[in-house]
Amino acid sequence: MAGYLLARMTRMMTWMRWVLLGPEDSWAATLATGRLGIAALAGLALLMHVLDLATGLRMMLVHGINLEQNPLARYIMTTSGPLGLVEVKLAVVLAGVLLFVRTAQVGRPRLARNCLLMAAGIGLLGFASNLVG
């Protein structure tokens, strides 16, 4: 049983390595790594975080600040108000997105694509978690 499990895990690890670190010229490696693809993913990441920000502000203003899951956002909202939260959130997200776009420009488009997809996913998760009522 242990031998079977070990063989299965080894096969799965080999498959994951092939999928994640496949050849540089495969379709999966080059998908959305051009200028247009990176720009579209950067726009998508920004959009998801703006939606997260808008629904988060609505949730905090309608249902109270205690529903916000991010303690830093709660602190900023308490000390600086909604405008302070907008400024900090957009500054941080924009800095991160610009860093990922720059990463693509200096020769790591695959890394930038993956990071932008992750950033968009995090924004989507925040947006969905703010849909309380």
List keywords for this structure.
mainly alpha, 5 helices, single chain, 133 residues
Would you give an account of this structure?
The radius of gyration is 19 Å and the shape is flat. The longest helix has 35 residues, at 71-105. The chain has 133 residues and is mostly helical. The chain contains 5 helices and no strands. Helices cover 81% and strands 0% of the residues. Helix 3 runs parallel beside helix 5 (109-129) and helix 4 packs antiparallel against helix 5 (109-129).
Q: What is the rounded Rg?
A: 19 Å
Structural class by secondary-structure content = mainly alpha
N-end to C-end Cα span:
49 Å
What is the H/E string? HHHHH
Please summarize what this structure is.
Helices cover 81% and strands 0% of the residues. With 133 residues, it is mainly alpha-helical.
Write the SSE topology.
Blueprint: H1 2-20, H2 27-30, H3 35-63, H4 71-105, H5 109-129
Helix pairs in contact: 3-4, 3-5, 4-5
